[in-house]
Write a structure and sequence with these properties.
The chain is an alpha/beta fold. It is 45% helix and 18% strand. It comes from Vandammella animalimorsus.
Length: 335
């Protein structure tokens, strides 16, 4: 029997389409199976700052118990530099399989992208928000040798020596840098900026007396404050905190635009499948119910948040817009 070319092509097309459909169904099943088995190997959480800072402290507080919840080890890795953007860029490029997550901060998802349009990721589209772990106050603190014991004395000392003092931050473009620069604009004070590769190295030099002034998150600074190796002068928080009742908020000082807390949450790369997002969110939320974990985080001065992925996404978007507006209004640029 002769088969016409037209008939052959029609039958071939039919079989090809059927094979493609079958292959697609097979791949879909494999993908669904991989998601249902998640995680089947250790999960990495990338901290985009050097060890010793608040981001690192919070990540390590949840890592081991989160691993127990997920049934696989959760390993914290530090990759500092660029005010958090180097590590955040790596996290944004990771495969969307849930095996490389990262800690998102105001520095990586709001202040740095707002002041530096050349960052290698879009904070609103290149990540999948999962959960905001905690929020922390930010502080201005000085070395004990600094000639000021109160905020008012600090202002007078800096006014007396324009550009005569330097302050340390966790990196150029980070929240510490941007908030301090905003503070300078609001107060007309003039200080030199010395950026570091994270809060840990910045703290080390201020505590050692190499740099007199620090803008930092409270959790990483608190041990040095309680041991009187740092003197806190002002704090960004909704109200004075019980651990430091003598320290006024920026709002009290008439500097409400600088009175913003920092967030520390878990994100994955864009396109992270919903079942994996839900599993990580549920496991982290469960960890944050543990009294031991809560105490470890809250003892640093942080407040547990544990919101939904949708709420965290909205928070990131709102915070990013705040800093876009601040940069534009204050005409801030990278140093």
């Amino acid at each position: 029997m002769r088969i016409s070319r037209r008939h052959f092509n029609r039958r071939f097309s039919h079989y090809g389409t059927a094979a493609a459909i079958a292959l697609g169904l097979g791949l879909g099943s494999s993908s669904a199976l991989a998601q249902s088995d998640y995680p089947s190997k250790p999960v990495r959480i990338l901290v985009p700052f050097a060890a010793g800072g608040t981001t690192d402290i919070i990540a390590r507080a949840i890592a081991e118990p989160l691993g127990k919840q997920l049934g696989q080890a959760v390993v914290v890795e530090n990759k500092g530099g660029g005010g958090g953007t180097i590590g955040a860029s790596e996290a944004a490029r990771a495969p969307a399989d849930g095996y490389l997550l990262s800690i998102a901060t105001v520095s990586t998802t709001a202040s740095n992208p707002a002041i530096n349009p050349k960052v290698a990721y879009n904070p609103l589209t290149d990540f999948t928000p999962i959960i905001n772990i905690a929020a922390t106050p930010n502080i201005i603190a000085v070395h004990p040798s600094f000639p000021a014991k109160s905020y008012e004395e600090f202002v007078k000392a800096v006014q007396a020596k324009p550009d005569g003092y330097a302050y340390a931050s966790s990196g150029t473009g980070g929240i510490a840098h941007l908030q301090m620069e905003l503070f300078k604009t609001l107060t007309s004070l003039s200080m030199q900026h010395i950026p570091y590769r994270g809060s840990g190295p910045a703290l080390a030099d201020v505590v050692a007396g190499q740099v007199p002034i620090l803008f930092d998150n409270l959790p990483s600074s608190m041990p040095f404050i309680t041991s009187e190796r740092l003197r806190p002068l002002a704090i960004a928080a909704p109200e004075r905190i019980a651990a430091l009742p003598q320290v006024p908020t920026f709002k009290e000082l008439g500097l409400e635009p600088a009175n913003r807390m920092a967030y520390y949450g878990i994100v994955g790369p864009k396109g992270l499948p919903a079942p994996i997002v839900q599993k990580i969110h549920a496991a982290t939320a469960q960890v944050l119910q543990d009294p031991t974990v809560r105490k470890r985080i809250e003892d640093t001065g942080a407040q547990i948040v544990a919101n939904s992925p949708e709420e965290f996404a909205a928070q990131i978007k709102a915070e990013y817009q705040v800093y876009v507006d601040v940069v534009k209004k204050q005409k801030l640029t990278l140093e």
